[in-house]
Write a structure and sequence with these properties.
Layout: E1 3-6, E2 16-22, E3 29-30, E4 35-40, E5 45-49, E6 54-59, E7 66-68, E8 72-77, H1 84-87, H2 95-110, E9 126-129, E10 139-145, E11 152-153, E12 158-163, E13 168-172, E14 177-182, E15 189-191, E16 195-200, H3 209-215, H4 218-232, H5 262-271, H6 289-293, H7 322-337, E17 340-348, H8 350-359, H9 369-383, E18 389-391, E19 396-398, E20 404-406, E21 408-410, E22 413-415, E23 418-419, H10 427-442, E24 456-460, E25 479-493, E26 496-510, H11 516-531
Parallel strand pairs: 20-24, 24-25
Antiparallel strand pairs: 1-8, 2-4, 2-7, 3-6, 4-5, 6-8, 9-16, 10-12, 10-15, 11-14, 12-13, 14-16, 17-26, 18-19, 20-23, 21-22, 25-26
């Protein structure tokens, strides 16, 4: 049976998409997981893979053309199958046909690879699966449900907040109806395309839907058994030797996550409060804003003159976030696939310090040393395109543009927002861009497009008092610069020992693209700009 493939929603704000390139043509055989096309969204150009198998019978949107989300993109079916009835309605199906097609697509996606039987859905029932909210997302975690079972859901309503490998994003419903079942509780994770929720007419019997859906996916079946095992053997609460009555423990999910609203979680992070120690007053013991605002640490036995035994072993298990998993995967791949080598230098910062002081004397102007380094790198990279390169399996790309990634530390790990065309921007423009992107990163508001496309990366730990360190290359870039603290020390100038200020930098290079002499020449050019920053204004 022919399957209608509609324009997917590949970002949380996407309303329409443009076909940048087709990777398959009419008549080609399609396997589940094959890349059908590259789709340009409002944030990035992403690969769109097929969830179905068959022959590509029709392409509804040509390269360069644009259509709205959920409108006809392509048709996949049996070789030689008659699809004239589907095409007679034009670019999009009639409402009844569209609903029927959606049910067919859902059934096909949910079918077990080892079984030819599809999941039977009651009329009007839609299975909502874990969405792919970023181009690298493989699984997602439900941070918060904004709807509960029994609520009426309108198309466009926010169903839940989903934690991806890059950010926590709002996920809106593409259907209208009643929320009949929630497949994942807050804090639980599932792979992309696994059961998230079920929406349909109120009162519909869906007793067999979720069971059939879960059993059709081996990964889901294994996850379900793990969750059951955790439910049967909950962790014992630690016993504290104290006469002070402790508040009742806050309810946690099966995998140990605390029930807490996003706002309360943010306030707790700002105040340094351990959520495990807070008693929630919200629905079902959920921690809410007022619980954090009113929280007072329990009085310890030591503070009232009581003896507390020392040497007690204690620890907290913290589930790896999606961001932490993505960072681990990317850095491990980079470290063990790219042959790293490191070049270390020490620059005289006297002129840079004087330059910054004079520059910041201009009203409403504020630049940092990091802004000076980013600008200097951008100008130096234009003269050394080999360092501004990227390595791919079949080619090496020498970039003529300069997009510099600036590493930003966030509570869950590290993100690298990108300052685009940094060589063409002024120092104040770079400073404003870095400040805005860093703020978005810490608030988990960065879009995928703001974290993609870097050609070189700068990592600065100088503000933390670190003198020197080395970094792992942010692939597919060929190099990353590690920037240390400005240190006051004795230096030799004109044969005399005087007090000076220096800064150590380390350049990590991929030896497949950047030879040692090439990296050294880049650092010499960089030295000229940083030690004489006025030359950057010429």
């Amino acid at each position: 049976m022919a399957i209608v493939v509609n324009m997917p929603r590949l970002s949380d704000t996407m309303e329409e998409g443009t076909v940048a390139a087709w990777l398959k043509k009419v008549g080609d055989k399609i396997e589940e997981g094959d890349i059908l096309a590259e789709i340009e969204t409002d944030k990035a150009t992403m690969e769109f893979e097929s969830f179905n198998e068959g022959t590509l019978l029709h392409i509804g949107v040509q390269e360069g053309e644009t259509t709205k989300v959920d409108e006809l993109l392509a048709i996949i079916g049996d070789d030689g199958e008659d699809i004239s009835g589907i095409l007679s309605g034009g670019g999009s199906s009639a409402p009844a046909e569209a609903e029927e097609t959606k049910a067919e697509v859902t059934e096909t996606v949910e079918a077990d690879n080892s079984s030819s039987e599809a999941v039977e859905l009651p009329e009007g029932v839609i299975v909502v699966t874990m969405p792919r909210l970023s181009d690298t997302m493989e699984e997602g975690t439900v941070a918060t449900w904004l709807k509960k079972v029994g609520d009426v859901v309108e198309e466009g309503d926010i169903l839940a907040e989903i934690e991806t490998d890059k950010a926590t994003m709002e996920f809106e419903s593409f259907q209208s109806g009643t929320l009949l079942e929630i497949g994942l509780q807050e804090g639980e994770s599932a792979k992309v395309d696994e059961l998230l929720a079920i929406i349909g007419p109120a009162g519909t019997d869906i007793s067999g839907v979720s069971a059939n859906f879960s059993s059709s996916t081996p990964a889901k079946k294994e996850e379900a058994s793990k969750v059951e095992a955790k439910k049967e053997t909950p962790k014992a609460a630690p016993v504290v030797a104290s006469k002070t009555s402790a508040p009742a423990p806050t309810p946690v999910t099966a995998n140990g996550r605390v029930y807490v609203s996003p706002l309360a979680k943010k306030l707790a992070e700002e105040k340094g409060i351990n959520l495990i120690k807070v008693q929630g007053s919200g629905e079902n013991g959920r921690i809410i804003k007022r619980d954090i605002e009113n929280y007072e640490p329990a009085v310890s036995a030591a503070s009232v003159g009581k003896f507390v035994p020392s040497g007690q072993e204690d620890f907290d298990d913290v589930d790896n976030s999606q961001m932490r998993k993505a960072i681990a995967k990317a850095l491990t791949n980079s470290k063990f696939s790219a042959p790293h080598y490191y070049l270390s230098v020490e620059f005289d910062m006297e002129n840079a310090m004087a330059f910054r002081t004079q520059f910041n004397s201009i009203p409403d102007t504020k630049i940092s040393y990091n802004d000076i380094v980013v600008k200097a790198c951008a100008l130096a990279l234009k003269q050394h395109p080999q360092v501004n390169s990227q390595w791919f399996a079949d080619k090496m790309r020498l970039n003529n543009h300069v997009h510099i990634g600036v590493a930003v530390a966030v509570p869950d790990g590290l993100v690298v927002p990108v300052v685009r065309f940094a060589n063409e921007q002024t120092l104040p423009q770079i400073g404003a861009a870095v400040k805005e992107l860093a703020g978005k990163a810490r608030n988990k508001k960065l879009t995928p497009d703001e974290m993609q496309g870097s050609t070189f990366t700068v990592s600065n730990l100088g503000m933390f008092g670190i003198d020197t360190f080395t970094s792992i290359i942010n692939q597919p870039n060929s190099a990353i610069l590690s920037v240390g603290n400005i240190v006051e020390k004795p230096v030799v100038k004109n044969g005399q020992i005087v007090v000076g200020h220096t800064m150590k930098l380390s350049l990590a290079c991929d030896h497949r693209t950047v030879d040692g002499a090439t990296g050294a020449q880049f650092l010499q050019t960089l030295k000229g700009y940083i030690e004489n920053p006025v030359t950057m204004l010429v």
